[in-house]
Amino acid sequence: MTDKPTIAILGGTGDLGSGLAKCWLAAGYKVVLGSRSAEKAKSVAEAMTGEVAGDDNVGAARAGDIVVLAVPFASHDATLTEVKDVVQGKIVVDAAVPLVPPKVSVVQLPSAGSAAQIAQQLLGPGVRVVSAFHNVGATKLHQGGRADCDVLVFGDDKAARDIVISLANEVASAGIDGGVLANSAAAEALTSVLIGINRRYKVPGAGIRITGLTAKSVA
Description:
By secondary structure, the protein is α/β, with parallel strands linked by helices. 37% of the residues lie in helices and 19% in strands. The chain has helices at residues 15-26, 38-46, 57-63, 73-83, 115-123, 138-142, 158-168, 184-201; strands at residues 7-10, 31-35, 52-56, 66-69, 91-94, 128-131, 147-155, 172-177. An 8-stranded mixed sheet has the order 3-2-1-4-5-6-7-8, sandwiched between helices. Helix 4 runs parallel beside helix 5.
């Protein structure tokens, strides 16, 4: 892609989705917020600064070059099924975490291995699923500037991983290549651990940093 892609964020009116939107808008990307309610998405978009629009999830997914899924896990499969036809040929970035209330600080991965693997199975081989943004606290994104943490990025297609790493570099300290999609289970599980740390240490958004890397190695 020679120009910056349009990013559709399904669940874009939520804390994580709207936080990602603000970061990418500040970096000069065009963003389309998706929601079950087009009216709600348009209302949230109107309050943002930059080239941003709102639509229902299908409309947003159709408009985006890259589609980010930032919905609760309870809505994960239904949202993917709803947009399956309009995301063929695109990169879908799955940020969903398989949290199972009320014990959200306990790791409870699905039998399929991870939310990202479920997404790839549901969407089929015509979609390049990449997994990222699980461990970035929404509070950090809304503070402005890059969040002080790293983002692990997983996917079976290296070119797609590299594109999402560049997006992660706009919202956090660094996007880090975590390897194949199956490895997403590690980051998805880590979210529950971080939620527990937030509670025990009374902090708003514990994150992770990958040490031992040089600026050149993550450039």
